[in-house]
What we know:
Layout: E1 4-9, H1 20-28, E2 34-39, H2 44-52, E3 62-65, E4 71-74, H3 76-86, H4 98-126, H5 131-145, H6 149-153, H7 156-176, H8 187-202, H9 204-211, H10 218-225
Parallel strand pairs: 1-2
Antiparallel strand pairs: 1-3, 3-4
Helix pairs in contact: 1-3, 1-8, 4-7, 4-8, 8-9
Bound molecules: glutathione.
Glutathione binds at residues 9, 19-22, 41, 44, 59-61, 75-77.
Amino acid sequence: MAQIRFYDLEINQPGLIWSPNTCKxxxxxxxxxxxxxxxxxxxxxTIIPSITKSGKRPTVPIIEDLAxxxxxxxxxxxxxxxxxxxxxxxxSLFHGNIGLxxxxxxxxxxxxxxxxxKLVVSRIADNCGPPQLVKWFRANREKHFGxxxxxxxxxxxxxxxxxxxxxxxxxxxxxxxxxxxxxxxxFADVTLASYFAMVxxxxxxxFELVLNIYNxxxxxxxxxxxxxxxxxxxxxxx
Length: 238
Ligand SMILES: N[C@@H](CCC(=O)N[C@@H](CS)C(=O)NCC(=O)O)C(=O)O
């Protein structure tokens, strides 16, 4: 029986596991029985506040902990910390080094994710739901970025170069260790695997460029190694 109710973000391929922030929670839930509730870019604005009742900007992931009075928790980092405390019998993803994982989480968010996001944002926009939602999403994001999504995305080669720079320290670690965390998977691995999962699902050809960014197998081998932690249908692509 599910202990956690987990809210994920659906686009026009039902069941596709693609959202970079929700994947962190999905992968962190690997050892805890959970059920998935799907929301979309439109209805999350009503569904999420009705659960969190916090007044915070509605985003996913959120969870409701069915084993603890349906307690709602929002935000992928806060959820990871919560699960670690509420489910001490499941394997830890922090290994007593929570500060280091927070550092990597922030690094990946600010230095890696933006370039991966630029590889996929146009295709997400075109496939985020029915035509009305597609129109709204594009207008909403273009207003936010102050430019068209295509302009915002820039040149593929520039993004790959910037990404390669940002991934250098990770590549250096993975040359010597099985995981970013060392010999055991940790939340740092969950974080980067989640961002990779977005490109894998949305733009498979570009994902090949990412895996080959150093013309070696380091990232590909690590990605394959993380498979056992990426539950669900990870081979589904848009
Ligand atoms: N810091 C938050 C970010 C959550 C977030 O931005 N989620 C996106 C989906 S990947 C979202 O819900 N977007 C809704 C929207 O932009 O309207 C976390 O890590 O949970």
